[in-house]
Write a structure and sequence with these properties.
The complex is a heterodimer of chains A (358) and B (697).
Chain A: E1 2-3, E2 5-8, E3 13-18, E4 31-38, E5 44-51, E6 68-74, E7 79-86, E8 89-94, E9 98-105, E10 110-118, E11 130-135, E12 144-149, E13 153-158, E14 166-169, E15 175-182, E16 185-190, E17 194-199, E18 202-211, E19 219-224, E20 231-236, E21 240-245, E22 253-258, E23 264-269, E24 276-281, E25 286-290, H1 297-300, E26 309-314, E27 322-327, E28 336-340, E29 344-348, E30 356-357
Parallel strand pairs in A: 1-26
Antiparallel strand pairs in A: 2-29, 3-4, 4-5, 5-6, 7-8, 8-9, 9-10, 11-12, 12-13, 13-14, 15-16, 16-17, 17-18, 19-20, 20-21, 21-22, 23-24, 24-25, 25-26, 26-30, 27-28, 28-29
Chain B: E1 8-13, H1 33-38, E2 41-47, E3 53-60, E4 80-85, H2 93-113, H3 120-123, H4 125-148, H5 154-177, H6 190-200, H7 206-214, H8 219-224, H9 228-237, H10 241-251, H11 259-273, H12 284-315, H13 321-337, H14 341-347, H15 351-362, H16 371-379, H17 389-398, H18 402-412, H19 414-426, H20 431-434, H21 441-454, H22 460-469, H23 473-483, H24 491-503, H25 507-523, H26 527-536, H27 540-557, H28 563-575, H29 586-602, H30 606-619, H31 624-639, H32 647-671, H33 677-696
Parallel strand pairs in B: 1-4
Antiparallel strand pairs in B: 2-3, 3-4
Helix pairs in contact in B: 2-4, 2-22, 4-5, 5-6, 5-17, 6-15, 9-13, 10-11, 11-12, 11-13, 12-13, 14-15, 15-16, 17-18, 18-19, 19-21, 21-22, 22-23, 24-25, 25-26, 26-27, 26-28, 27-29, 28-29, 29-30, 30-31, 31-32, 31-33, 32-33
Classes of the chains: A mainly beta (358), B mainly alpha (697).
Chain lengths: 358, 697
């Protein structure tokens, strides 16, 4: 069990996202920025900065805080999801069913609400909480944000026409998470334990629906492999991480990894090494799971492939659920930041290969 | 009352140490309370059952009807004010979360150490010391946070004082019951007590020495410094003998000192350096021997200085006052260091100082069981009415009067009484005082702390852990009551609350929450989700009612749109634990099969569609009110080009029709006539199909 560094922030952190580099892909920023969203008593977005660990001179000593607040802004409802669209643009999903766009400037530290729209409502008129959002991976300027909610609907909101969301009811339970597998296809997970695949061009029709016949748990989160759109990872309410191969849509291949003891709130393929799946859970831990051992360059180089296993990250001072995490996409150092119900920011800067075998 | 909710204001009432809280600003204008009261106005309020919020409004004392016409009444009292009594300051959130994590880890540690007998011996004192140190680190962090607040208000100052007291109490308990019990360490409490004293009460600092010495570059300057002698006496009282030795050595060359004072300063400085220190690898006898020798030497010094002072007083009463003062101070220091109780009492300002110096110089090998006798003698010299809660708690602890100690801890802070009683329970000392209390103190204080957190939006989960981990039936009962009243704001929060029920095996609460969620979803039109929740608690009646609602919606609209609802339910019901019986719910099975029938029919698979329809009728899963519609649905299959139903199938259809007709006959006798036209068509279609089936088969 490895230790996470902890910084108390005195508010429940429910969503988190690194900002993309200001200098494009050639990342040379000495300061990194990320945004956290919180809920319960303090409903707000906070912009943080932390020194880039790739630059030795900016390495903070152990007595310093992990990150410093740049600015904060109130948020309408608990923040359920954050997507950084650019270094100056942010989209959020709220427990009041609102999708909002925030403009910010890291130089001046300003952050302000641009536009917002209510995308999720129950049929009786009550607001339905949005549970997640994902941005269409097109690279176009006018991207579309898809969101899902407790009303069983997915809503598509183009940034240029934020006030005109298109909503489609696609499930009778709660949609817990969604992701774009390709620029035209997206996948959702449901409280009913299903993955459903949709084509953006026919969003009201379900292309395929899968459930894990071997397990009896609702699905809480989903992520797509960075280079294999047919490979998905999902987190379950019982603490398992499932890796799906859906090439054969009639009979998907599922690999179940029992890595947590409670609901897996977020799951991601490690962008630096997609043979690893990272997940955070209600059991107050983060798990880095080596799910595959094939197809690695190390094998070609005559190095033994990594063994399958799991490495757990937690902190003595964090007893409650770790709700969210994000991995910095542009640093050589593996930089993971997470947020928890114990009111902590948690950070890990390197990944040590001390895997415990299954 | 609805009309009065035209607006809500949010007030914040800061926590008060006393029971009373005051609204700021008040609802009545300042100074006009009596005028408003005379005009039939008063405050009305209602307390929220779970949170720490109170609804307040200005209302009439009497109804309008009972007032005389000339009484002034007001129309503008149309506001309800929501008043949040913040029992926990946000400045404490990090501390509460940190220590909650340590508390949970401690319970796990004890549980893992021995499921049957979770005693300190099983885990080891070292483990408990580690946990205790983690608690103290959290206190120290909080103290630093409070100290860093620029321009602190009264509340922050009080908080800082409270945390200093909490740390002092905790640290002393740790020393008495944990540190001095650690295997391998010397069991003398004296060095630990001195460490505690200097860490928790303003001690002579190295900075003070630098300030005094730095501002006085020469020995003469040092001798002239007014702060010097009080500082040296404080060093002696607190046991900083090496610093004292250095200062005396530096002072000795001063020309302002008499020759004898200079000589004795130098001599005392050397004695300071020779003070014996106990170590774990030395026997008590050896240390006592060294100590007696040093003490005798010191006694000789003190006697000699005392004689000098006496002689000087006789010869020259007023001259050389400064030098005499130096000698007097040296005499006082040597008297303190030789363990003279009167001299220590004369120099010590606080009882803690006197206790420390007495232990250090008079009983250097004292153990914890010697403390009650010592503290009793010392506090007699002080006015107890001037004691703070901290003083009382510390004295009770030193006296090993743990019941009184806990009461004073609770007066200092509820956090302290809860956590310290828990620690005392783990080190098996709470049993000593359990019988004094009517209820178990650990349970009582932990429950009180947990309940105080429940109303806080960020701390409800922490509060539930305290209730759950107090390991008593009462705690579980209170928890069960509270957990069902937590607002289920979101799907994730509902999952978290259900998880709490699972962890603490709150079966009844779990069932109630599922029913609550089911009704909530039903109200919001999320029929699939509602069925899934009702299925978790096997609420067949509610599921049946929802199925009826779905069927009625289909009948009234004619559009079969409930497919996604059924799909989601069937997926969740087949997956969720404890809901296996849902699959056998007739209403759901009927709707599912009926949807399959329509899909097959629309796809042109008439034979398969017919089989599904017949299976619905044969299994008798269809509600009685749907039978007619099912038989009507069979007419196109009976009349179609393809023979779908065999003669036996047709007989079954006719049996169902007959049964339906009989029931309708009975119903018609009560309600009136029924339309039989569709049934006649069905009968004809059956007859034709029967004839065809005889020919075909």
């Amino acid at each position: 069990m490895s230790k996470l560094q902890v910084q108390p922030v005195a508010r429940k952190v429910t969503a988190i996202s690194w900002l993309p580099p200001r200098a494009g892909t050639a990342y040379t920023d000495t300061e990194l920025y990320f945004v956290t969203g919180s809920g319960a008593k303090h409903k707000e977005l906070v912009l943080w900065t932390t020194p880039n660990p790739d630059f030795a001179q900016s390495e903070p000593d152990s007595t310093n805080d992990l990150a410093a607040v740049v600015s904060k802004v109130p948020h309408n409802g608990d923040v359920q999801g954050i997507i950084a669209l650019s270094p100056s643009l942010l989209a959020t999903a709220s427990s009041t069913g609102i999708i909002s766009v925030y403009n910010m400037d890291t130089e001046s530290g300003s952050m302000e609400l641009g536009e917002s729209v209510t995308a999720h409502k129950f049929s009786n008129g009550e607001v339905a909480g949005a549970t997640s959002l994902a941005v269409q991976p097109t690279g176009a300027l006018d991207v579309e944000v898809a969101s899902c909610g407790e009303d069983g609907r997915i809503a598509f909101t183009a940034l240029s026409r934020l006030k005109e969301p298109q909503g489609y009811e696609v499930d009778s339970t709660v949609i817990t998470d969604l992701c774009w597998t390709t620029p035209t296809q997206l996948a959702i997970t449901t409280r009913g334990g299903q993955i459903k695949i949709f084509d953006r061009r026919m969003p009201s029709e379900i292309l395929a629906a899968f459930a894990n016949s071997q397990s009896s748990q609702a699905l809480e989160s989903i992520a797509v492999h960075p280079s294999q759109p047919f490979r998905l990872a999902t987190g379950t309410a019982g603490g398992s991480v499932l890796v799906w191969d859906i090439r054969d849509m009639r009979q998907p291949v599922i690999e179940e990894l029992a890595v947590h003891e409670a609901n897996v709130w977020q799951v991601r393929f490690d962008p630096a090494d997609s043979t690893r799946v990272i997940s955070c859970s209600e059991d107050a831990s983060i798990a880095v799971t080596q799910w595959a051992t094939e197809g690695r360059g190390a094998v070609a180089l005559g190095v033994a492939p990594p063994e399958r296993g799991v490495r757990r990250l937690s902190s003595m001072f964090n007893a409650l659920s770790i709700n969210c995490f994000d991995i910095c996409p542009s640093t050589r150092t593996h930089l993971l930041v997470a947020g928890s119900d114990s009111g902590n920011l948690l950070m890990e800067k390197t990944v040590n290969p001390d895997f415990k075998l299954f | 009352m609805q009309n009065r909710h035209t607006a809500t204001d949010r007030f914040v009432v800061s926590r008060d140490k006393e029971a009373a809280t005051h609204l700021s600003p008040g609802l009545f204008p300042a100074g006009r309370q009596s005028e408003w009261s005379a005009q039939n106005r008063t405050l009305i309020f209602s307390i929220h059952p779970l949170s720490n919020k109170t609804a307040l409004a200005v209302g009439g004392k009497k109804t309008r009807e009972s007032l005389s016409n000339d009484t002034l009444t007001f129309d503008q009292d149309q506001r309800v004010h929501i008043c949040g009594i913040s029992t926990e300051s946000d400045s404490r959130l990090a501390f509460i979360n940190d220590t909650h994590a340590v508390f949970v880890a401690l319970q796990q540690l004890m549980e893992e150490a021995g499921a049957d007998d979770s005693t300190a011996s099983a885990v080891g004192i070292k483990g408990l010391v580690k946990m205790s140190v983690l608690y103290r680190e959290a206190m120290q962090r909080q103290s630093r946070v409070l100290a860093d607040i620029a321009d602190p208000n009264e509340f922050i100052k009080e908080e800082a004082e409270t945390f200093r007291a909490i740390h002092a109490v905790w640290h002393l308990l740790e020393i008495i019951y944990l540190t001095t019990n650690t295997p391998g360490l010397s069991t003398s409490i004296v060095p630990h007590f001195m460490e505690w004293l200097n860490a928790n009460f303003l001690a002579p600092l190295a900075e003070d020495a630098h300030r005094i010495a730095g501002g006085s570059p020469t020995a003469d300057d040092l001798a002239r410094n007014e702060l010097l002698w009080p500082y040296l006496k404080k060093l002696a009282l607190r046991g900083h003998v090496s610093v004292l030795g250095n200062m005396l050595e530096r002072l000795a060359p001063s020309q302002l000192l008499s020759a004898s004072a200079a000589r004795w300063a130098r001599s005392l400085s050397q004695l300071c350096r020779k003070m014996p220190l106990s170590s774990s690898d030395e026997t008590a006898g050896s240390f006592n021997s060294r100590w007696r020798q040093w003490n005798e030497e010191l006694r000789g010094h003190a006697t000699a200085i005392g004689c000098l002072l006496g002689d000087a007083g006789e010869k020259d009463g007023g001259a050389g006052g400064d030098k005499d003062k130096a000698l007097e101070a040296l005499f006082a220091i040597s008297e303190v260091m030789r363990g003279d109780l009167d001299a220590i009492a004369a120099e010590g300002e606080m009882w803690q100082d006197i206790m420390g110096a007495t232990l250090l110089y008079s009983e250097p090998t004292a153990r914890a069981d010697r403390l009650p006798a010592l503290v009793g003698a010392i506090i007699e010299q002080f006015e107890e009415s001037a004691f703070t809660e901290l003083d009382r708690a510390l004295v009770a602890l030193l006296n090993h009067d743990l019941a009184e100690f806990l009461v004073h801890c609770d007066h200092i802070d509820h956090w302290l009484s809860a956590h310290i009683s828990d620690l005392m329970d783990h080190i098996s000392v709470l049993d000593i005082c359990r019988r004094v209390f009517v209820v178990d103190p650990r349970e009582h204080y932990l429950m009180a702390l947990g309940e105080s957190y429940l109303g806080h939006e960020d701390l409800w989960r922490v509060g539930l852990d305290y209730l759950g981990l107090c390991r008593t039936v009462a705690g579980a009962l209170v928890m069960e009551e509270y957990v069902t009243r937590i607002p289920l704001d979101s799907d994730r929060k509902a999952e978290q609350v259900l998880r709490v029920c699972e962890v603490y095996t709150l079966e009844c609460a779990r069932d109630r929450i599922h029913r609550q969620l089911g009704r909530q979803k039903w109200q919001r039109g999320r029929l699939g989700a509602a069925i899934a929740h009702f299925a978790q608690v096997c609420d067949h009646d509610s599921i049946g009612l929802i199925c009826d609602q779905i069927w009625n919606a289909y009948i009234s609209s004619g559009e079969l749109t409930y497919g996604p609802t059924i799909d989601g339910v069937m997926a969740s019901s087949s997956l969720s634990e404890g809901s296996g019986s849902l699959l056998h719910h007739e209403g759901l099975q009927f709707l599912s099969k009926y949807r399959d029938f329509h899909e097959l029919y629309a796809a042109g698979a008439f034979v398969e569609a017919g089989k599904v329809l017949l299976s619905i009728l044969l299994c008798e899963i269809a509600p009685a009110y749907a039978l007619g519609d099912l038989l009507v649905d069979s007419i196109p299959l009976l009349e179609g080009d393809t023979l779908v139903f065999s003669s036996e199938d047709t007989f079954e259809l006719m049996r169902v029709a007959e049964s339906l007709a009989q029931s309708q006959m009975r119903q018609s006798q009560q309600d009136g006539a029924i339309d039989c036209s569709e049934m006649n068509i069905f009968n004809v279609a059956c007859t034709r199909n029967l004839a065809r089936s005889f020919v075909m088969f």
